[in-house]
Design a protein that fits this description.
By secondary structure, the chain is of the alpha/beta class. It contains ten helices and eight strands. It has one domain: Thiamin diphosphate (ThDP)-binding fold, Pyr/PP domains (Rossmann fold).
């Protein structure tokens, strides 16, 4: 299938600011393919982000976009969706923006089950703001604020989303580029809060500090650790040690927040 990338690229904004080897551009192309597959109208689609490398993504896409404060993407997006429930609302951000400074907004967006899709680009670090460790930085790995190794246990973002109440949770990687758009399509079509975690790489602030020799080595790491959910069903616990499940991890149907909120408004108006 041929995709019309140019249709969704905002004129005059390329080349992008991402470092050579960064996985965010792969994710952006996956999002554009998903939008093209679904035939989303630009005027009826809002892409919302916070601050950080991943949060620069909406600036390159030609639709309704909102570049907000650090960690506040879910809060602003909730306002957009409540004001205009008919809009397709998509959030983009990194692991730090989404689960550290924005963690509170993230878990409550999951809890409410509001009909939005959150694409979290997890590169295990704060990239733009100086290479600090994030809640997703693996234990023992180095960052600018943990030069001798991170002592903290890290979040499993997918499990965090499921535990907080998200009704669609999926995970992919930048290496498995052709899977990204399919996961995003399914997430957007789901009626409820959807989280798509994409594991990608940051060669500049994460890779260098953790002794990766090249972007190719980092990409191969994603290839080696990823195991599709269906394949995992046939593997032993020992075989799954150190692996990360990919694909659709969780899906259920529950009442959607804007529909439930509309009922509250109806009851109030009836008084």
């Amino acid at each position: 299938m041929a995709f019309d990338y140019d249709k969704y690229i905002r004129p005059g904004k390329l080349p992008h600011i991402w470092c050579p080897g960064c996985g965010h551009g792969i994710v952006m192309k996956g999002l554009i393919r998903a939008m093209d597959t679904l035939g989303l109208k630009k005027e009826n689609t809002a892409i919302v982000s916070g601050i950080g490398c991943a949060s620069r993504l909406p600036g390159y896409i030609d639709c309704c976009t909102l570049h907000t404060a650090h960690g506040r993407a879910a809060a602003f997006a909730t306002g957009v969706k409540l004001a205009k429930p008919e809009m397709n609302v998509i959030l983009c951000g990194g692991d730090g923006d989404g689960t550290a400074i924005g963690g509170n907004h993230f878990i409550h967006a999951c809890r409410r089950n509001i009909d939005m899709t959150y694409i979290i680009m997890n590169n295990y670090i704060y990239g733009m703001t100086g290479g600090q460790f994030s809640p997703a930085t693996p234990t023992g790995h180095k960052a600018s604020t943990t030069p001798y190794g991170n002592p903290d246990p890290c979040f499993d973002i997918a499990k965090l989303a499921i535990g907080a109440g998200a009704t669609f949770v999926a995970r992919g990687t930048a290496f498995h580029a052709n899977q990204i758009d399919k996961l995003i399509v399914e997430a957007i079509q789901h009626k409820g809060f959807s989280v798509v975690e994409i594991l990608d790489d940051c060669p500049t602030t994460y890779g260098r500090r953790n002794k990766y020799k090249s972007v190719i080595e980092m990409m191969n790491r994603l290839k080696e650790v990823a195991v599709p959910v269906k394949a995992a069903e046939k593997m032993t616990a020992e075989q799954l040690q150190g692996k990360i499940l990919t694909g659709v991890l969780y899906k259920e149907e529950k009442p959607e927040y804007t529909a439930e909120y509309a009922k509250v408004i109806e009851r109030a108006q009836a008084k």
